[in-house]
Amino acid sequence: MPKTSATATDAALRNNVFAALNIANVEGFQKINNRQYGVLMTDANGVQRYIRVSAIVAEVRDDMTAAELMQEEIDKYHTALAKEEKVKAERAEKAARDKAERERKKKEKEAAKA
Hints:
This protein is α+β, with helices and mostly antiparallel strands. It folds into 2 domains: 1-57, no CATH class; 63-114. It is 56% helix and 16% strand. A 3-stranded antiparallel sheet has the order 1-2-3, with no helix packed on it. Strand 2 and strand 3 form a beta hairpin. The longest helix is centred in the C-terminal third of the chain and has 48 residues, at 66-113. The protein is elongated, with a radius of gyration of 26 Å. It starts with 5 loop residues before the first helix and ends with a helix.
């Protein structure tokens, strides 16, 4: 049995994903090409925007399975989210310290005037 080409295999996988999402039957979505569907929507500012939904098929890798690759990407995402949350918390703490310092200096200045 001949092996199916990567192009044909990837196209079939994308078709399966779009069929599973039933995106062709969702109002407003149009097929852009074999890899994407698009829709026009109005954003919160009243501006019409073009949104693309793409199906990307990852290459077969020798160093890890598809499940391992997927888990690696999920882990990277969660690590980035955790880092972002840590930075937000640090910024909030610094803002609180800075505000307290400004208020302390303001009180000292007012006390010196009196």
